[in-house]
Amino acid sequence: MDFNSENKLFDYVRGFTMDFDLKQGQSSGKTTTKRFLSQMKGMFADEEAYRKILEEKGDQLVYEFHELGVPEDAGKLSFGVSICYPGKVGDEYYMTKGHFHCILDTAEIYYCFSGHGYMLLESPEGDWSALELLPGKALYVPQRYAHRSINVDPVEPLRTFFVYGADSGHDYGTIETKGYRKLLVDDGTCTPKIIDNPKWK
Ligand code: MN
User: Fold this and answer.
1) Cα–ligand 1 centroid distance for 166 (angstroms)
2) What is the C-alpha to C-alpha distance for residues 123 and 138, in angstroms, rounded to an integer?
3) What is the domain count for the chain?
4) Could you tell me what percent of the chain has a pLDDT over 70?
5) Ligand 1 (ion): which residues have CB within 5 A?
6) Does the residue 16 lie in any domain?
7) Is residue 169 in some structural domain?
8) 129: domain range?
9) 65 contacts: CB under 8 Å, gap ≥ 6
10) φ, ψ (nearest 5 deg) of residue 161
11) How remote is the CA of residue 52 from the centroid of ligand 1, in Å?
12) How far is the CA of 162 from the centre of ligand 1 (A)?
């Protein structure tokens, strides 16, 4: 039990605890925001494959994550779990949209606790890397880099816990418009491979 606490969830003044299930990543304190395939139009390179999945299989849950609604003050931290499901659109693995932070000079931490994936990092100047995520690995997203998680496992969801400055803000628009310079694809041998994004602007 806690001492000298009102046990109030989201008590940003005096502190609080919150549960996240170690297996599923869900929390009793807050449901997740869900991103379906239909919300990711134009984000995958193979538009024909994208259209076909929606037509033949219907809308699919691609990823979900916690938005706690932490007040966006400098000094506060926001956190939660991100779950990216297994799947592919053409050769391209299911992934999150990816974003820059509006305050570009802000970093973020991810901790992977299940699955197998990559974090694709890209700076506005075009420097990039793809860092492998496996259970037990913490990942440091540096200031200025866009970040997107990608699930390369055919079965297991990729689950990460993240923490970032609550005032960082999310810029999804740049990636939605320009895309990433690089894509992570399955080369047919179930080995992830980096290729140039044919649609990059
Ligand atoms: Mn971020």
Assistant:
1) 10
2) 20
3) 1
4) 100
5) 108
6) no
7) yes
8) 33-196
9) 32, 33, 35, 80, 81, 82, 83, 96, 162
10) -105, 135
11) 30
12) 8
Residue 75, domain member (yes or no)? yes
Residue with tokens 């200025």: 144
Tell me, in angstroms, the distance from the centre of ligand 1 to residue 157's CA. Answer: 19
CATH of the domain at 141: 2.60.120.10
CA of 36 to the centre of ligand 1 (A): 19
Amino acid present at 18: M
Distance 7 CA to ligand 1 centre (A): 28
- Give tens-digit pLDDT for 10-68: 999 999 999 999 999 999 999 999 999 999 999 999 999 999 999 999 999 999 999 99
Whole-model pTM: value is 0.96
Q: What is the pLDDT of residues 97-106, one digit of tens each?
A: 999 999 999 9
For ligand 1, the distance from its centroid to the CA atom of residue 56, given in whole angstroms, is 33
The backbone torsions φ and ψ at residue 153, rounded to the nearest 5 degrees and listed phi first, read -85, 135
Closest Cα partner for 170 from 34, 43, 78, 38? 78
**Among candidates 69, 93, 86, 88, which has minimal Cα distance to 148?**
93
Q: Is residue 7 part of a domain?
A: no
